[in-house]
Amino acid sequence: MARSARSATASAHHIREAKNLHRPFVLHMALKDRWVQAEVNELLERRLSLNPLVTIHKYPGADHAFARYGGKTYSKPEAERALALTLEFFNTHLG
Question: What's the pTM value of the predicted model, to 2 decimals?
Answer without folding.
Answer: 0.83
